[in-house]
Amino acid sequence: MTFVCRRIGTSTRLPPGTLVSYQVTVAPVVDFRQGFRSAVWAPLWEEFFCDWRQLWFNERIEPPSWVLGDEAIAAGAKGILFPSTIAAPGVNLVLYVDRFDADDVIEVFDPSGALPKNQDSWR
Length: 123
Description:
This is RES domain-containing protein. InterPro entries: RES_dom. Residues 10-110 form the RES domain. This protein is of the alpha+beta class. Helices cover 20% and strands 18% of the residues. It is globular. The model has no long low-confidence stretch (mean pLDDT 89).
């Protein structure tokens, strides 16, 4: 639901779309759900929730969160799991799909087969 909260933003209406859940099997993933703790994380992680839009678009500074993403990838992580700043107690998962191998899987959760199977299904 964190996506819906972020997508709506300040608007009262959500544009048309299809919202689905996924079943994800990916490892390793950086687990940052507990947030910054100085005994566990390097100091830069304290800036994970920076206002990246302000930094990038207004100040032309590379946001610390982007640097942390690069560091996670360099360490072999395939994603970062972190708490939502919009819809607590929700969590978000950023995935670096270009790092996936055969053991990593993302599948749409559609147990009743309600979603279209191909373009003909939309007609």
